[in-house]
Each structure stands twice: as C-alpha cells, then as structure tokens.
Automatic annotation (TrEMBL):
Lineage: Eukaryota, Metazoa, Cnidaria, Anthozoa, Octocorallia
Protein's recorded name: P2X purinoreceptor 7 intracellular domain-containing protein
Residues covered by region (Disordered): 1-69
Organism for this UniProt entry: Paramuricea clavata (Red gorgonian)
One Pfam family it belongs to: P2RX7_C
Biased composition (Low complexity): 1-24
Amino acid sequence: MDIDYSSESSSDGSGSSGSSYSEDMNVERDVNMIQPYAFEPVETDSSGDHEDSEEMASESSSSSDKTTRLQDTNWCLCTHCQIKDREEESICCHEIPACVSINQEAAQIEEIPVPECITDNPAFQYLCLNYWVLRVAWSDYRQH
C-alpha cells in the first residue's frame, strides 16, 4: 500500500503551507508600501491591420512634435513653460482643458483678465505653493 505524502506539510512548518503563509504575509506587507510604477500604462502591440496611412502620418507628426518640445519652447502658449527632460513633462497649461476653464472661472469670479498661465491664477499661490497646504496633502498621500 503506497501513500502519497507530497500534498501534506511537515510538522515543523517548513512544508508548502508554511512557505505559502510567509509569502502571503509578504504580499500583505507589500500592499501597504508605496509601489512605484503601479499605475503606469502597459504598452500594447499596436501593429494591427486596422491602421491606415493617415493614422501613421499623424503619429509620426506628433512624435516629431514631441521631439521638438525637448529642444525649444516654441510650442508654449502661456510663455511660462520650460524645456524639460521628458516628453511627458513637456505640456503647456493651455493644452489642458481643466487649466483653461479654471483660469476662465477665476477671471469671472475675481473680475480680472483671464490669467495667461495657471501659475498666474490667484488660487495657485494658496493651493500649490503654501507650505501648510502641501504638508496636509503630503500627509494624506502618505496615509493612502
């Protein structure tokens, strides 16, 4: 009579159930730690048959536009942008609809001309540069 003991763990806790328990504990501990790149988009293969020459032409023009953004600030509409190291950072506040609408709202409420840049918005000083606001935001970020 043959008995298979491979699925049972040993009595000293060094069996498979003991190792999976310690792995589960590591996973639980890791969940509470900051996970870099956790929300980065995953690149997908875009070499499908549905692409036509117009899409490829627009992609090549946009990639060349991003390349020039790393070399100069001629693309900037607010005159406050600076040359950045990465393409993702090279964006003007006028290209972000939320920033444009906030500047328009500030102009209506404060009865001032529309700010040229989001950094000229009256709320920017209080919400983005104030030490105590930043400290509360950092504390909240650290807890989550």
